[in-house]
């Protein structure tokens, strides 16, 4: 299959996705940003409208950086010239009909018709003069006269007169009249860009978001996605629609426990987390110590210890209820139970339920300082997902103050700094983490990523090569760290070293065969590298087979189906991802993709407009 812009768009779609990891109230082993980080500067709606340029395949924070970089480069269809910033579409249009006497090749024609059209043009021209002078009421009268004089079969001329009158109504902020006249213009001339865009703006003012989206989608397709003004309006209305839909959906959603692999990967990103450590010998009965391979019985009648036992058995659905028993009884492990329950609330996407528990742990001065620091890390990450970076920073700084020897504080704060574009500070935090935990491979790999990103942003080729060498050293030193191979693969893809990147993803799969996101990344690599759609879809389908709760896989599959023109299947995939979303923000950007696909479907029905497909 030959390379194509739609293929690049599909790659850009997935590269823009901020959701390869397990950042639920803390960074996960699979990436550096949580699922709530989908509100970065570059909108995601245009992915579903078949535009974009190839980007690096990134995980977590790397995704967000990619999206910001693309916005700075005025992303769009290719890099040559970027987006048009003009075309304000404020002025009325001049003569749109054939010149007088040009109705037939010999200059003849119905003189009465030509006189009527000529008089209509004269009225319109007079209206244009009033418009330019700011006399909009008089302009409206002239355009109304032009409409009444124009022969009904002169569709193009008549549509122009309606559109001009709509422009005058727009200046008077009479939005209902603007929409009505633009509708008349579009009925007469269905691909009339000015009328469609003006009606989109009127619908925005009238709070008709769905109708606004459909009109601006049609405009974007007709303009080849080259006018920034149109794209910014689409971005704006899709964000609003996404937030509205997500707010209602998230409020009524059923909590859903993620896959065991996701949960284990999440906890693996913490090294100083008491609640994720295996049960201590004193917590088990003597009989249980001799039962290797059998379920453990806890010595004390403790809900928290029972919950810990369920964690070891990967029986995660029972953990919240057992922690609640410990808390209700005000047992000796109440602080631990509060933190564990809060963590699982975060994992099932119930941030509102998690926050009171985290607040209580943080306020318990007599509690183990590592418990309080861990609660601050998780609350800080939750704040970041909710777009509250100042509160997030405060929590991380407080955690560092009360427990300066806690490596998790610096590891997770480093990820926060990456998202805030404070790369030097991120590197310093990773260094502090590594100093405390020299064998913590995940922090070593993420430090390499931060250095690579810094070099790439600065366009410093020597530093890029040094960072790539750093990746080699990390995977040599920590050959069992899947994250090291994954991040290295992303950098290699960015450098277009596709074959080696593919080898790194294979290493990841060898180490973590049940990590669905790796299959998604490898599938996307096949699209960018070989334009092998079948292989790419096969790998992403494999990801869903491994983990049917992998929202990243459903989202990516939906994006590719949009590019293939399979809107119905794309919408189904987006809806599955929405049902699995772990935060309201994540849900909002998924709704944006789904709404964009819906809008494209409606535009195809109404106007026969479709972007290129794979």
Automatic annotation (TrEMBL):
Region (Disordered): 1-36, 72-113
TPR repeat residue intervals: 120-153, 482-515, 551-584
Gly residues biased stretches: 22-36
Chief site of localization: mitochondrion
A GO CC term assigned to this protein in UniProt: mitochondrial outer membrane
GO process terms (BP): protein import into mitochondrial matrix; protein insertion into mitochondrial inner membrane
Claim: Transmembrane helix is one of the keywords in the record: yes
UniProt keywords, alphabetically: Acetylation, Isopeptide bond, Membrane, Methylation, Mitochondrion, Mitochondrion outer membrane, Phosphoprotein, Repeat, TPR repeat, Transmembrane, Transmembrane helix, Ubl conjugation
Pfam family, one: TPR_6
Coiled coil: none
Intracellular or extracellular location(s): Mitochondrion outer membrane
Membrane topology (UniProt): Single-pass membrane protein
Subunit relationships: Forms part of the preprotein translocase complex of the outer mitochondrial membrane (TOM complex) which consists of at least 7 different proteins (TOMM5, TOMM6, TOMM7, TOMM20, TOMM22, TOMM40 and TOMM70). Interacts with CAPN8. Interacts with TRADD, TRAF6 and STING. Interacts with MAVS. Interacts with HSPA8 and HSP90AA1; both interactions are required for preprotein mitochondrial import. The interaction with HSP90AA1 is direct and mediates the association of TOMM70 with IRF3 and TBK1.
The family this protein is said to belong to: Belongs to the Tom70 family.
Name recorded for this polypeptide: Mitochondrial import receptor subunit TOM70
Organism: Phodopus roborovskii
């Amino acid at each position: 299959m030959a390379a194509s812009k739609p293929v690049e768009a599909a790659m850009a779609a997935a590269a823009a996705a901020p959701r390869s990891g397990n950042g639920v109230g803390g960074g996960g082993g699979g990436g550096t940003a949580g699922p709530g980080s989908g509100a970065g500067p570059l909108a995601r709606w245009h992915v579903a409208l078949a535009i974009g340029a190839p980007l690096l395949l990134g995980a977590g924070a790397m995704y967000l950086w990619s999206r910001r970089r693309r916005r700075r480069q005025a992303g769009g269809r290719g890099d040559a010239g970027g987006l048009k910033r003009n075309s304000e579409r404020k002025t009325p249009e001049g003569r749109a009909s054939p010149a007088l006497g040009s109705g037939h090749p010999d200059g003849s024609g119905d003189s009465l018709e030509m006189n009527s059209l000529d008089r209509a043009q004269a009225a319109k021209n007079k209206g244009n003069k009033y418009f330019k002078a700011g006399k909009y009421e008089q302009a409206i009268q002239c355009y109304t006269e032009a409409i009444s004089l124009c022969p009904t079969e002169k569709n193009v001329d008549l549509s122009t007169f309606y559109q001009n009158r709509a422009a005058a109504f727009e200046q008077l902020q009479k939005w209902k009249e603007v929409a009505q006249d633009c509708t008349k213009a579009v009925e007469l001339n269905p691909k009339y860009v000015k009328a469609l865009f003006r009606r989109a703006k009127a619908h925005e003012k009238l709070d008709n978001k769905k109708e606004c989206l459909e009109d601006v989608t049609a405009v974007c397709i007709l303009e080849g996605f080259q006018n920034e003004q149109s794209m910014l309006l689409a971005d704006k209305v899709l964000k609003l629609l996404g937030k509205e839909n997500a707010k209602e959906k998230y409020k009524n959603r059923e909590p859903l426990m993620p896959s065991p692999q996701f949960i284990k990967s999440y906890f693996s990103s913490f090294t100083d987390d008491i609640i994720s450590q295996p049960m201590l010998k004193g917590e088990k009965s003597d009989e249980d110590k001799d039962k290797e391979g059998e379920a453990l019985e806890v010595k004390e009648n403790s809900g928290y210890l029972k919950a810990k036992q369920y964690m070891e058995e990967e029986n995660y659905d029972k953990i919240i209820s057992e922690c609640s028993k410990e808390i209700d009884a005000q047992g000796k492990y109440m602080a631990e139970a509060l933190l564990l329950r809060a963590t699982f609330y975060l994992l099932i996407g119930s941030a509102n339920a998690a926050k009171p528990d985290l607040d209580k742990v943080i306020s318990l001065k007599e509690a183990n300082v590592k418990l309080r620091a861990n609660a601050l890390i998780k609350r800080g990450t939750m704040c970041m997902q909710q777009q509250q970076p100042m509160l997030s920073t405060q929590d991380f700084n407080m955690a560092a103050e009360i427990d300066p020897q806690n490596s998790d504080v610096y590891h997770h704060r480093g990820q926060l700094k990456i998202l805030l574009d404070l790369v030097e500070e991120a590197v310093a935090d990773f260094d502090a983490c590594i100093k405390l935990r020299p064998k913590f491979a995940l922090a070593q790999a993420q430090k390499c990523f931060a250095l690579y990103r810094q070099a790439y942003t600065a366009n410093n080729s020597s530093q890029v090569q040094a960072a790539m060498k750093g990746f080699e050293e990390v995977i040599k030193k920590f050959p069992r760290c899947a994250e090291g191979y994954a991040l290295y693969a992303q950098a290699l893809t960015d450098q277009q070293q596709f074959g080696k990147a593919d080898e790194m993803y294979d290493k990841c799969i060898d180490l973590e065969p049940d990590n669905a996101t790796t299959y998604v990344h490898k599938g996307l690599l096949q699209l960018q590298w070989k334009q092998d759609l079948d292989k790419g879809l096969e790998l992403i389908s494999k990801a869903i087979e491994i983990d049917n709760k992998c929202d990243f896989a459903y989202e990516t599959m939906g994006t590719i189906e949009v590019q293939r023109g399979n809107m119905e299947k794309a919408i189904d995939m987006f809806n599955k991802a929405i049902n699995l979303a772990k935060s309201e923000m994540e849900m909002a950007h998924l709704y944006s993709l789904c709404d964009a696909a819906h809008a494209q479907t409606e535009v195809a029905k109404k106007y026969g407009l479709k972007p290129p497909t794979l």
